[in-house]
What we know:
This protein is α/β, with parallel strands linked by helices. It has a domain at 27-145: HUPs (Rossmann fold).
Amino acid sequence: xxPTQPRRPVPTPRFSPVPSVSxxxxxxxxxxxxxxxSVRALVWALHRATELGVRVEALTTWPLHGAVFVxxxxxxxCEPRWRAREVQAEAVSRALAAVDDAPPYDLRVVNADxxxxxxxxxARAVMVVTGSDGPASGTGVRRRLxxxxxxxxxxxxxxxxxxxxxxxxxxxxxxxxxxxxxKTSGQRGTGQAPRR
Length: 196
């Protein structure tokens, strides 16, 4: 190319705009580990989902105790996964027995840390519900887990405690609203499930 000839512009590739992926928040995700607290949480979520017109996703992580498996071999029997499915099925049966008209629900069993699994599932949830056998303001493992969830869940987090009346005519639980940044706003409200 001679110095007197004008340079041709380098063609710019034309890309069609990438459509934004819209995630539908159409469910309440409930952590289910088979404990009485998780069954209470599931009952509360079933009532609330009926009121809101959304699905419920019962999420169980495995192994129920111990570290997450690095890798699972496809096609092979896995006792911890099987046990988690049995525990989940029993808990769901107990919760459904306490609800007159259950909304649609999905069952998921995943090999993951509980907080990580709930964070991933919250991407399509209107709220995340967990059971608690004591106050979230307590100490120890329960407090650390609750704090991790509050920091990581970008949607409303509802903790259903032992004093929450899930069997009575009025269901209530402690709710913590999260912002879209994943940090909680610190505001507390009361989640209300429908009266039966």
